[in-house]
Amino acid sequence: MTKANKGIYAASLTPVGPDGEPDGHKLARYCRWNLEQGLDGVAPLGTTGEGNSLPLSFRTALPAIFAEAGFKPSEVIFGTGACATGDAIAATKAATDAGFFNVLVLPPFYFKNVSDEGLFAYYARLIEGVGDDRLRVYLYHFPQMSMTPISIDLIQRLKRAFGPLIAGLKDSSGDFGGTLEFVDAADDFDVFPSNESVLLEGLGKGCAGVISATTNASAALARATLSSAGEEAAALQETLTAVRVAISRHPLSAALKQIEAWRTGDDSWLPVFAPQVGLTQEQKQQLRQDLEALEPASGVLSRGRAAA
Questions:
Q1: Cα(7)–Cα(4) distance, rounded to whole angstroms?
Q2: What are phi and psi of 128, to 5 degrees?
Q3: Which of 42, 38, 31 is nearest to 225 (CA)?
Q4: In whole angstroms, what is the distance from residue 145 CA to residue 51 CA?
Q5: What is the pLDDT along the chain (308 residues), one digit of tens a residue?
């Protein structure tokens, strides 16, 4: 069984080293810390991790670092999508060669208005190029960013052709009704919305969990929400949603790196990769004010310290 865990994932941040390059070892330590806070898994090299701003050489080197750090294959979903099919194959093979078979794959997003026929050819070439039956592909539906949506017809065609190798989908559209349509699209198909404000409702309606940017900051709170019941769970879900709303008012990668800098006292967390930029002073003040208003119930600013 090579499929990823169900449950709560963070779309992991990518720290920047002193040389201005992505720091894979610090990323691995950070992901380990987040698992210790209660996550079921981590998803490095996605949108929040600025994956498409990172060199392919880093993306192909990272899975070996995670293997050396002792991560289980079931608790990591690496982002491996790329505009060039060959780059997607290289990134995916690096993951499978290191023992990680779960990958989150954006469609090729440069050309717009492409057909399902073209998208099928991309995913088919990826699967055939990797050539490993243990591979589990999670499609990445993020039409606002990629401008290349994943359709139900495409999902069903891929499932007919490749069966269990098409393992699920991350839905970052923000359309929860559409998420539930994906849930019903196919059997043995795990759907993860990207917003933990629907964590409990989504699980109750067949979602597999969430893969969220903001659970980088609220992992322990999300775990507490999932582990509770009744009125307590509802109250925790309300706080979890409020945290999501507060952080989402700002560019996510920059805001979450700012939170890590506050939480750890390590300002080396602050840099983001071009073309993104850090928060303005006004944005920092607003974010801090909003998060402090949710303490101590959220624990976002005080719950433990991330690995430096």
A1: 9
A2: -70, -35
A3: 38
A4: 13
A5: 689 999 999 999 999 999 999 999 999 999 999 999 999 999 999 999 999 999 999 999 999 999 999 999 999 999 999 999 999 999 999 999 999 999 999 999 999 999 999 999 999 999 999 999 999 999 999 999 999 999 999 999 999 999 999 999 999 999 999 999 999 999 999 999 999 999 999 999 999 999 999 999 999 999 999 999 999 999 999 999 999 999 999 999 999 999 999 999 999 999 999 999 999 999 999 999 999 999 999 999 985 544 44
Strands in 102-105's sheet, in edge-to-edge order, are: 78-79, 102-105, 136-141, 166-171, 190-193
CA–CA separation, 305 and 54 (whole Å): 26
- The residues annotated with a catalytic role in the active site are 47, 110, 140, 170
Question: Across the chain, where does the E strand assignment appear?
Answer: 7-10, 41-42, 78-79, 102-105, 136-141, 166-171, 190-193, 209-212
Q: Where are the domains of the chain?
A: 7-228
Q: Is-above-0.90 flag for pTM? A: yes
| Structural tokens at position 91 | 């990134």
Distances (CA, A) of 60 to 110, 129, 156, 285, 287: 21, 15, 30, 37, 34
Task: Read off the tokens for 90.
Answer: 């290289």
Q: What is the DSSP letter of 113?
A: S
* β pairing state of 7-10 and 41-42: parallel
> How many CA atoms are closer than 13 Å to the CA of 282, on its beta-carbon side?
1
**C-alpha–C-alpha distance, residues 16 and 79, integer Å:** 18
The CATH class given to the 7-228 domain equals alpha beta
* 3-state SS class at 270: coil
Q: How far apart are CA 43 and CA 40, in angstroms?
A: 10
274 φψ region: left (φ > 0), alpha (ψ -120 to 50), beta (else): beta
